[in-house]
Design a protein that fits this description.
alpha/beta
C-alpha cells in the first residue's frame, strides 16, 4: 500500500483551530449554582468534587452534558426531534468549546425480564452469528438462537398480480429461538388463588383482596358482579364448575354493564396482564408486596430456565450450545472463544474476544451473559455501559462519569483509574464526578464546589491541581488525606446469627456466624458473594430492616416530605390550627392550584418542537390555591414550610406554636443521615443517587427492627460526611441494634467491631469466607486483598 509523504514546512504560528482547547462555562445558574464561571481543559481528566448537594451534578450533567446533547439533537430534522428527548436549554449565560458528550451514568439498565447482560451489549448478537455459522446441526439464521424471537409458521393462498392474476398456495417459516412455553422469560408463574379473594364471601360482600379492587369499583368488581356469568350474591366457594371456569379463566368477552360496553376477562389472565406484565421494581411498595405474596416464579420446565427452544439448544460448537455459553462466567467464556480457530469467522471471533476481554478488564469478568440486567447494581450497570466505549474509534469527545468507583473494592479502583486515563490518552475530555481520594489523585484538573450543600453550595471553592487542592483549605482539601484509625477496643457480641450452608449464586456452602449487638462489615472484591450471603441468607422480617440499593421511584410531584411520610403530620397540624380539612394542604389533592394542578409549572406541548415549561402565573410556582395560603401555622403558610431546608424545619417544628413531635422525629432522622440541606418540597427526580440512598435510610430508621442491613451506605458521600455516617452507625449499635454493613470503604472497615471478608476473587473464584475477625487482626495478618489495602490505608 502506497503512502503519500508530507513535505509541509513547520508553521511558525499555531493554527487558529488549536486555540479552542477549553470548555468555557460562564454564569451557570442551574438548580443551586450561583453564577458559576469555570474553564475546563480539553483532552484532560477533570474531577469535580464537593459535598453531596454542592452542585457537582448540576454543573456537569445538567449544564455541560445537557447542553451538548441538546445541540446535537438540534442537528436532526424536526420530524426526528419529535421522537427524541427534548431537554430545555440550561440556565447559563455562555457555553463555549463543547464537544459531543457521552454520558455514562448510574441509571440502572432496564429491568425487562427479557433483558440480560448479553442483550444489553453486543456480546449476545455476536454469539448468535457465531452459532449460525458454526453450530452443528445448522438450524437457521442468528434469529434461530434468540430467545426474543418466536418461531413463525404460516401457509395459505396469495394472489400474484402479474399478467393474468392467479392464486397460488405459499408457506412461510421463520425459525426463532424463543422457548414457546415461557415465551423467552426463563420462568413461569403460578398464582396463589387464596391471595386474590376470600372464597367464603360473595363478590357483593367484597370477596376480592387485591390492592385497589374496592367493592364499589365499577371497572373491576362491578364488571364481575354484573357480567351475567356469575351470581354476585353467592359465596365463591359455592360457584358451580362453569361459574368457576368463567370466573377464573374465561377468554375476553364483550359485555354490557350499566349501558357501557366493556370487556370481561377471567381473573387469572386479568391479574397476569395487570401485574405480571409490569416491571416489579416500578411497582408501588404495597403492590410489590402483594405480587410477592400471590405469585411464585419457577424455572421453566421446558427449557430449564435457558429461555431457548429445543432446536436452539441442540445446535453446538465443540459440544457447547449457546445456552451453555451464555451461562459461563465471562472469564471462562473468553477462554472458550479464544480456543476457537475457524478462518471463515476470524473477524467475528476477534470482535467477540475484544468485547469479552473488556468485561474482564473493567472488573465484570465474574458476570455471565444470561444475568438479568435488572439485577445489576448501579455501579455494575455503569461499568457495563463503559464497555462499548473502551474500543471505540471516536476521539475528541467528552466522556462524563458519575462516581465510576461506586461498588468497587480498593483493588478494583486502581483498574478503573487506568481505564479513565486510557480514555483521556486517546485524545478525549474526561469529566468525572467523584469522592474517592484514589481517583481524585489522578486528576489533571480539579474543580471543588461548595462550600456547603444546597443553598450553602453552588460556588467554586477551588480550581486547579490536586496539589493545590491539598493546600487550598477547602473542606475537600482538608479531608483529602484523612485516614481512619483502628478502634482501640471493639464491642463484645451479645450472641450470633448463624448462617449454615449458604449456596446462593457463587457461594460455596458457606458457614458463618454474624455477631449480634455490634457493627459488622462484610467486604470483598466486587462479585465475591457479599450480597448473596447477606440478602440471600438473612430472612426479611419485621426484625430485619434492609436498606439496599434498589432505586427510589417517584415523579416530579414526589419529594422528601411525601416519601418519608413527613407531610401527613404537617397537614394535620395545619388543619388543626386552622379548623379545616387536611386535604387542603396537599398539592395533589383539594388544595392544588387549579391552573397547574399542583405542579407549580405549566407544560406546553409544541408538537414537533421542544415543549416548554413555565412557572404557573396563578400560584407563582407555590403549587397551592391562593385561599389555602391564607392558613398559617407558626406564622408560615404550607408553601413556605415546603421551601424550608430540613435543618430550618427541624427547629421550626421543635417548639413554639408550630411544635409537632411526629414531624420533628422524621426531620431529626433526615438531619442525622446528612440531608439537612434538602428542602422539604424538592422533587425526588432532582436528588442524586447517594441522596436517595440516605433518604431511604432515614425512612427506615423509624422502623422497630433489631437488625439493620445496609448496602454500601457511603455511596455518594463526601469525605467529610463519612465521619457523620460512622457516628450514626455507632448510635444505632449503642441503642441495642445489630448493624450489618456491606461496604468497601476502608474508613468503615477500620471502624467495625467485626469483619467478614469474602473472596479470594470474584465469581467462581470467590464465594468463600477468607477472613473473619476484628479489623486489627485483618491488618496484622494481611493474607487477603482487603487486608493489604486496609493495612496500607491505616498506615501499618
Amino acid at each position: 500500500m502506497s503512502r503519500a509523504t508530507r513535505q509541509d514546512a513547520p508553521s511558525a504560528a499555531p493554527h487558529a483551530a488549536d486555540h479552542h482547547d477549553l470548555i468555557r462555562v460562564h454564569g451557570a445558574r442551574e438548580n443551586n449554582l450561583k453564577d458559576v464561571t469555570i474553564e475546563i481543559p480539553k483532552r484532560r481528566l477533570t474531577v469535580f468534587t464537593g459535598v453531596s448537594g454542592s452542585g457537582k451534578s448540576s454543573l456537569v450533567f445538567d449544564t455541560i452534558a445537557a447542553e451538548s446533547q441538546r445541540l446535537i439533537n438540534e442537528t436532526y430534522s424536526t420530524f426526528v426531534q419529535g421522537f427524541m428527548p427534548t431537554p430545555a436549554r440550561p440556565e447559563v449565560d455562555v457555553l463555549e468549546g463543547l464537544t459531543t458528550a457521552i454520558i455514562v451514568d448510574q441509571q440502572r439498565l432496564g429491568a425487562d425480564p427479557r433483558s440480560t447482560v448479553g442483550t444489553a451489549t453486543d456480546a449476545n448478537a455476536m454469539l448468535r452469528i457465531l452459532f449460525s455459522r458454526l453450530g452443528d446441526p445448522h438450524i437457521g439464521s442468528p434469529n434461530a438462537y434468540s430467545f426474543n424471537v418466536p418461531s413463525v409458521r404460516a401457509h395459505g393462498a396469495i394472489t400474484v398480480e402479474r399478467g393474468n392474476s392467479k392464486t397460488v398456495r405459499q408457506s412461510f417459516t421463520r425459525a426463532g429461538g424463543m422457548c414457546p412455553h415461557c415465551e423467552g422469560r426463563g420462568t413461569v408463574s403460578d398464582i396463589d388463588l387464596g391471595q386474590l379473594y376470600d372464597d367464603a364471601k360473595s363478590i357483593s360482600e367484597g370477596a376480592f383482596t387485591i390492592p385497589g379492587w374496592k367493592s364499589d369499583s365499577w371497572w373491576t368488581v362491578r364488571l364481575y358482579a354484573d357480567s351475567g356469568f356469575l351470581d354476585p350474591d353467592k359465596p365463591i366457594r359455592d360457584f358451580s364448575e362453569q361459574e368457576m371456569r368463567d370466573f377464573l379463566y374465561r377468554e375476553p368477552t364483550k359485555v354490557k354493564v350499566g349501558g357501557t360496553n366493556l370487556t370481561y376477562e377471567g381473573l387469572v389472565p386479568k391479574i397476569q396482564k395487570s401485574f405480571l406484565a409490569k416491571d416489579r421494581e416500578a411497582m408501588q411498595p404495597h403492590i410489590r408486596e402483594f405480587v410477592d405474596r400471590a405469585v411464585t416464579f419457577t424455572a421453566c420446565p421446558e427449557c430449564a430456565g435457558t429461555r431457548l427452544s429445543e432446536a436452539a439448544r441442540s445446535s453446538r460448537i465443540d459440544g457447547v450450545n449457546i445456552a451453555d455459553a451464555c451461562a459461563l462466567q465471562i472469564t471462562d467464556l473468553a477462554a472458550w472463544v479464544s480456543g476457537l480457530d475457524e478462518p471463515s469467522v476470524t473477524p467475528l471471533l476477534a470482535a467477540l474476544r475484544h468485547t469479552l476481554d473488556s468485561f474482564v478488564e473493567i472488573g465484570l469478568g465474574y458476570l455471565s451473559l444470561d444475568r438479568p440486567s435488572g439485577t445489576l447494581s448501579g455501579g455494575e450497570a455503569q461499568r457495563v455501559k463503559m464497555i462499548r466505549h473502551l474500543g471505540s474509534s471516536l476521539t475528541d469527545v467528552t466522556y462524563v462519569f458519575d462516581e465510576p468507583t461506586i461498588g468497587l473494592h480498593p483493588h478494583d479502583i486502581e483498574r478503573m483509574n487506568g481505564l479513565l486515563l486510557r480514555l483521556r490518552d486517546k485524545g478525549n475530555t474526561v469529566l468525572v464526578v467523584e469522592h474517592k481520594p484514589e481517583t481524585i489523585a489522578i486528576a489533571d484538573h480539579v474543580i471543588d464546589l461548595g462550600p456547603g450543600a444546597g443553598t450553602d453550595g453552588g460556588t467554586v471553592s477551588f480550581e486547579g491541581t490536586v496539589a493545590g487542592l491539598r493546600a487550598s483549605g477547602t473542606l475537600t482539601g482538608r479531608h483529602l488525606d484523612d485516614r481512619a484509625t483502628l478502634k482501640k477496643a471493639v464491642r463484645e457480641p451479645a450472641g450470633a446469627l448463624e448462617i449454615r450452608g449458604a449456596d446462593r449464586h457463587n457461594l460455596r456452602d458457606v458457614d458463618v456466624d454474624i455477631p449480634l449487638g455490634v457493627l459488622t462489615v462484610v467486604t470483598g472484591v466486587a462479585g465475591s458473594g457479599k450480597s448473596s450471603l447477606i440478602h440471600g441468607s438473612i430472612p426479611g422480617s419485621g426484625e430485619v430492616v434492609s436498606v439496599d440499593q434498589s432505586p427510589i421511584r417517584g415523579s416530579r410531584r414526589s419529594n422528601p416530605a411525601t416519601y418519608t411520610g413527613l407531610l401527613d403530620p404537617i397537614r394535620k397540624a395545619f388543619a388543626k390550627a386552622n379548623g379545616v380539612k387536611p386535604a387542603l394542604f396537599s398539592a395533589n389533592s383539594e388544595g392544588a392550584c387549579p391552573n397547574c394542578k399542583g405542579a407549580g409549572v405549566v407544560y406546553t406541548d409544541l408538537g414537533m418542537m421542544a415543549g416548554v415549561s413555565t412557572t404557573c402565573e396563578e400560584c407563582d410556582g407555590k403549587r397551592f390555591e391562593a385561599s389555602v395560603l391564607e392558613h398559617h401555622l407558626g406564622g408560615k403558610d404550607i408553601s413556605e414550610v415546603l421551601a424550608m431546608p430540613v435543618t430550618e424545619a427541624e427547629a421550626f417544628f421543635r417548639e413554639g406554636g408550630a411544635r409537632t413531635p411526629a414531624a420533628h422525629r422524621v426531620l431529626t432522622r433526615l438531619a442525622d443521615v446528612g440531608l439537612g440541606y434538602l428542602t422539604l418540597g424538592q422533587p425526588l427526580t432532582t436528588l442524586s443517587g447517594g441522596e436517595r440512598q440516605r433518604l431511604k435510610l432515614a425512612t427506615h430508621m423509624g422502623d422497630k427492627g433489631g437488625t439493620y442491613v445496609l448496602d454500601e451506605p457511603t455511596t455518594g458521600l463526601h469525605l467529610a460526611d463519612v465521619d457523620q455516617l460512622l457516628a450514626l452507625l455507632d448510635r444505632l449499635v449503642d441503642s441495642g441494634k445489630t448493624v450489618i454493613v456491606i461496604e468497601h470503604h476502608q474508613a468503615v472497615m477500620a471502624h467495625a467491631d467485626w469483619i467478614i471478608d469474602l473472596g479470594p476473587g470474584a465469581g467462581h473464584d470467590g464465594g468463600r469466607v477468607v477472613f473473619q475477625g476484628t479489623p486489627g487482626d485483618l491488618v496484622e495478618q494481611r493474607d487477603t486483598l482487603t487486608g493489604r489495602h486496609l493495612a496500607q490505608y491505616v498506615g501499618r
